[in-house]
Structure formats: C-alpha cells, structure tokens
Amino acid sequence: MSKKSRKKSSKTSSGNPTAKKKAAKSRASAQTGAAKTQRTPASKSPRTIAKAGSHKAASKQLNSSKSSAPPAPAKSGLAEGQKAPAFRLPRDGGDVLTLADYAGRKLVLFFYPRADTPGCTKEAIDFTRLADAFAAAGTAVLGISADPLKAQEKFRDKHKLGIPLISDEQHEMLEAYGAWGEKSMYGKRFLGILRTTVLVGPDGRVARIWSNVRVDGHADEVLDAARSL
C-alpha cells in the first residue's frame, strides 16, 4: 500500500463523523444503564412497603403466629403481703379516687378488659349485687378498666351498676397491679388487660390476688375472702 493510500485509510477510520456519533451514543447508553443499576437497590418493592405498613398497624401484636402458649402476665412484681401501689385516677361522675381514700378499710379492686362486653358485664353486675354484703364486711369495691369515662358512665347507666368505675387510659394502675400483659386471640398475641382482682387489707397491703379470673362465682369468692380478712 502506498503512503497516500495508508494516509487516506487512517483518516477515514478515525475522522469519520458518523463513527464518532455512534461511539458517543454507545458510551452515553452504557452510562445511563449503569446509573439505573445503581439506583434500583434504593427503591422499595411494593411487598417491602406493604410489610412496613403492616408492622406499624400491628405495633402491639407480639409474635402473633409463632406460639400458641398462654400469654405471660405483666411483670409488675406485685405479690401478696406487699404494700398496695398508690393510684390517683378519675371515676365515673368526674370525681378522682386515690388509694389513700380507703386507708384503714378493706378494698377490692377488680380489673376488667372492656366495658359492656359479656364477661365484664356479668362480673360488674355480680359485684353490684353483693355491694351491700361487701359494705357490711367493711369492704369497698372498685372496678377498673382502660375505657374512657364516657364509656364507663354509659356502662354504669345501661346495667344500673352500683360500684365506682375507674378509668385508667394510660395503663399506669393496670401495670402496677399486674393486670396488663400479653394476651392471645385467634392465634395473635397482643398487650391488653388481664382479668385480675386484688384484695387490699386495712393495713394497705395486698392480702389476696386472683389472676386469670373466671367470672362465674368469682364475686362470691372474693366476698368470702374479705369477710375472713
């Protein structure tokens, strides 16, 4: 090949505008693909977003499907013989009740999960039925749940309940008395009120604790314990 031919061939392969455009376009395409590849891991799939939303909505559920064992009670450390935890909470009607209001008297505190549900209604009616007998035994009776005051008052009026109902929406008293802990329903575990009754003696100490209460005959059993105290 002559010098003139080699010079022409070299000029054609390196200086062709069409070839330059194709090369530039190929490089730009490669860079765009690389950028998309880097951004992809940062985005969340619909499945990931749904999972996060589900976790937030069920913030109080505890390992719902992993175990069918009975829920553990709240670890309040409350035991018979110990001093009853102080409380100051609103009751139906708008007044405020404290443990000090019952100093020197026996006091029954029954904690129920929710106002106007079947088991809670029967329990409250049973304690109301025995209200005079408890009074004769020198014992006051209070019902406690996390229901707001309006719900407690509606519950009282609907069933003509004759015992004070305390509203503990922040669960402070419930936790202090061991009536707040894990529960299980339909294979799901969650935090809630454990049906519990506590009998406080005139010395301000816990005389008796009933955990996982069965409603039938319970109020009568508590009355017998109060009479013997």
Write the layout of secondary structure elements.
Elements: H1 3-15, H2 17-39, H3 46-57, E1 88-90, E2 96-98, E3 106-111, H4 118-129, H5 131-136, E4 139-145, H6 149-159, E5 165-167, H7 172-176, E6 180-185, E7 188-193, E8 196-200, E9 206-210, H8 218-228
Parallel strand pairs: 3-4, 4-5
Antiparallel strand pairs: 1-2, 3-8, 6-7, 8-9
**Which regions have little confidence, pLDDT < 50, spanning 5+ residues?**
2-15, 17-21, 34-74
Helix content: 40-55%
Label the structural class.
Answer: alpha/beta
Pattern of helices and strands? HHHEEEHHEHEHEEEEH
Structure annotation, total helices: 8
How far apart, in Å, are the first and last alpha carbons?
Answer: 123 Å
The share of residues in extended strands comes to 15-25%
Say how many strands there are.
9
- Sum up the overall morphology in one term: globular
Q: Order of strands side by side in the largest beta sheet? A: 5-4-3-8-9
Radius of gyration, in angstroms, nearest whole number: 35 Å
Task: Explain what the structure shows.
The structure is a single chain. Strand 6 (180-185) and strand 7 form a beta hairpin. This protein is α/β, with parallel strands linked by helices. It has helices spanning 3-15, 17-39, 46-57, 118-129, 131-136, 149-159, 172-176, 218-228, and strands at 88-90, 96-98, 106-111, 139-145, 165-167, 180-185, 188-193, 196-200, 206-210. Helix content is 41%, strand content 19%. It is globular and about 40 Å long. The protein has 8 helices and 9 strands. Strands 5-4-3-8-9 form a 5-stranded mixed beta sheet. A two-stranded antiparallel ribbon has the order 1-2.
